[in-house]
Design brief:
single chain, alpha+beta, Aldehyde Ferredoxin Oxidoreductase,  A, domain 1, Aldehyde Ferredoxin Oxidoreductase Protein, subunit A, domain 2, 3 domains, 6-stranded mixed beta sheet, 26 helices
Length: about 650
């Protein structure tokens, strides 16, 4: 990434390469070819990892690399562009692992003057990275090792004497190598999925503290500002905006209940008799203090809450998203929102992915129900549905790998392999990663997206909200060639829709814009994104170029997984979703017809259906054939 330096605006023009083995810090110029072919963010992350990681390395050994990368819109006034990507080889799946978060860390790193940080090696003793504009150094972190993320944030800011520093850190979950541990910033913003926190912990890296006093210059400010105004108007006028802004994502609890897909008791059911107790209205009436926003975001979907009285009095902080409410709530049979709020605070402090953690506990509860686990295995904890005390105890035990928590810290796939006794039948994961909240028997495009996502059961790789927003059939026909695409219970037309969302989604993650802006409000599509990038950077780019870059990124992630032994056989869903129809509720009888969608998806992708390898003509068109040939990952059948 140190070839010809970019002259594009929007970018900062340099990145950091830090080797913890020898404490070396190097600044490299941002490569124009990387911009042209991979844009930034998620695109840069996969290219750097593919080029610099040896095949077959162990994710928690020092050979793994942690990439933190920004996009060309980071630090500008484009709406909802406060995000960053953190990527590595995943300790949860063994394939590509990346997470994405918002808040205020990303623009601060941009104002300090950097496009990315590439972290190699392992420090002998705990360290944190100090960045203040051009000055970068490694500081001792022994005194904050073993502290939670909230304590770490406070201690570092006090030590540096500046509250304006933005702190990225791990808690005890990352330190203890929990395979689904998160990296946190701004106390409640989580780069949560795929276990990137464990990779950071394996490197003895506790935190990154950033202070930037610079700015980001765009190429065509007048056109850029006009486009911002147009986009804001689209966002405010979209039917999804009022609910998302007022309630945050918690309004989806009600939506999923109405559809019959409110995941309950490890997805054994799609209706929950206590759903009103965990609904958006209950949160709004009893616990919400105020709304919160990431940098430069008009949606302000974040909510701050506090519990004043009772068993969980004193609980506070950024409130749980829909995913957290379901995974720590109804999936575990828990209908007490106060317990969920408290569990969420613990996860934020310890640095744990609430989706994988909740799913792992829900799986353990079903295993307990069916006799695969007993109280002798669980340290005497009764894993009955709805046992909120068990949930709280297990979060702490998992973060510290204490007793039974040490096993649960491995995630659903490894726990089921360890305990056996038929538990693999209800061990819900894709490629080793636990699924998010929305039950895909009531959202078939999401089901296909889980199966094909490169990082495992992932609602955000595609995020095909198009099927959930109540659009008229004519819009489905116009956008994706089928009236059925607007029907969440239908499988027809979903393959084309998922491919488009995945390709554009890779661009959204590489430009580092929030997907709520793009795929909830659909305010920014490929034409708009091309203009944002062009006006910011001065780079001439079309909507066709945009989708091709996204397709290149997605296919390179595919090649990474294939190189690590994750092939077509892993593009699947747990049996529960494809062979166990709901027995009651609005979605009674529904399953995911993956066998009907997947062949068409492969055909659109131009991948070989037997091997999962991309075909030669596709790789050649995308300009990554040489990377595939290096590992013989090419299907030479005609496309």
């Amino acid at each position: 990434m140190n070839a010809s330096s970019s002259s594009y605006k929007g970018y900062r023009g340099q990145s950091l390469v830090i080797n913890l083995n020898n404490n070396s810090i190097k600044k490299i110029s941002t490569d124009k070819e990387m911009i042209d072919k991979y844009l930034g963010g998620r695109g840069w992350a996969i290219k750097y990892l593919f080029d610099n990681l040896n095949q077959g390395i162990a994710p928690l050994e020092q050979e793994n690399i942690l990439v933190i990368s920004l996009g060309p819109l980071t630090g500008t006034l484009a709406p909802s562009t406060a995000r960053y990507t953190i990527a590595s080889k995943s300790p949860l799946t063994g394939g590509i692992g990346y997470a994405n978060a918002g808040g205020h860390f990303a623009p601060e790193l941009a104002y300090a003057g950097y496009d990315a940080i590439f972290i190699h090696g392992k420090s002998k003793n705990p360290k944190y990275i100090f960045i203040k504009d051009e000055f970068v150094e490694l500081k001792d972190a022994q005194h904050i090792w073993s502290k939670d993320t909230w304590e770490t944030d406070e201690l570092i800011k006090k030590e540096l004497g500046d509250e304006n520093f933005q702190i990225l850190s791990i808690g005890q979950g990352g330190e203890n190598l929990v395979r689904y541990s998160a990296i946190m910033n701004n106390l409640s913003r989580a780069a949560a999925r795929t276990g990137v926190g464990a990779v950071m912990g394996s490197k003895n890296l506790k935190a990154i503290a950033v202070r930037g006093t610079g700015s980001v210059e765009v190429a065509e400010p007048e056109k850029f500002n006009d486009l911002i105004d147009e986009t804001l108007e689209k966002i405010y006028n979209d039917p999804a905006y009022p609910s998302l802004s007022y309630y945050g994502t918690s309004f989806l609890v009600d939506l999923s209940y109405i559809s019959g897909g409110l995941a309950t008791n490890n997805n054994q059911k799609g209706i929950f008799d206590k759903y009103e107790e965990i609904s958006a209205e209950t949160f709004e009436e009893n616990y919400k203090v105020k709304s919160e926003s990431c940098f430069i975001c008009p949606i302000h979907c974040g909510k701050y809450s506090k519990i004043e009285t009772g068993k969980f009095a004193g609980t506070k902080g950024g409130s749980p998203e829909y995913e957290t409410i379901v995974c720590l709530g109804s999936k575990c049979g828990i209908g007490n929102l106060e317990a969920i709020l408290h569990a969420n605070e613990l996860c934020n402090r310890f640095g744990l992915d609430t989706i994988s953690l909740g799913d792992t506990i829900a799986f353990a509860m079903e295993a307990y129900e069916k006799g695969a686990l007993s109280s002798d295995d669980t340290d005497g904890i009764e894993l009955s549905w709805g046992n909120e005390d068990a949930l709280i105890k297990l979060i702490k035990k998992i973060a510290f790998r204490d007793g039974f928590g040490d096993l649960l810290a491995e995630g659903v796939k490894r726990v089921s392999e360890k305990i056996g006794k038929g538990s693999e039948k209800y061990a819900l994961h894709v490629k080793g990663m636990e699924p998010p909240a929305y039950d895909v028997r009531t959202a078939k495009a999401f089901g296909l997206g889980w199966a094909t996502a490169t990082r495992g059961a992932d609602h955000l790789a595609a995020l095909p909200n198009f099927e959930l927003l109540g659009y008229e059939p004519e819009k489905g026909l116009k956008w994706f060639g089928s009236e059925k695409t607007v029907d969440p219970y239908a499988w027809e037309g979903k393959s084309q829709m998922v491919v488009w969302h995945e390709n554009l989604g890779a661009i959204v993650d590489s430009a580092e814009m929030c997907k709520y802006t793009c795929f909830s409000a659909y305010a920014v599509k490929e034409d708009d994104m091309a203009l944002f990038i062009q006006y910011a950077t001065g780079k001439k780019i079309t909507s066709k170029d945009i989708l091709e870059i996204g397709e290149r990124i997605f296919n390179l992630e595919r090649l990474f997984n294939l190189r690590e032994g994750i092939g077509a056989e892993e593009d699947k869903l747990p049996d529960r979703f494809i062979s166990e129809p709901f027995s009651e509720g609005p979605a009674k009888g529904q399953i995911v017809e993956l066998d009907k969608m997947l062949p068409e998806y492969y055909e659109i992708r131009n991948w070989d259906y037997k091997t999962g390898f991309p075909k030669e003509e596709k790789l050649k068109k995308l300009g990554i054939l040489d990377l595939a040939l290096k590992y013989d990952l090419v299907s030479r059948e005609d496309g």
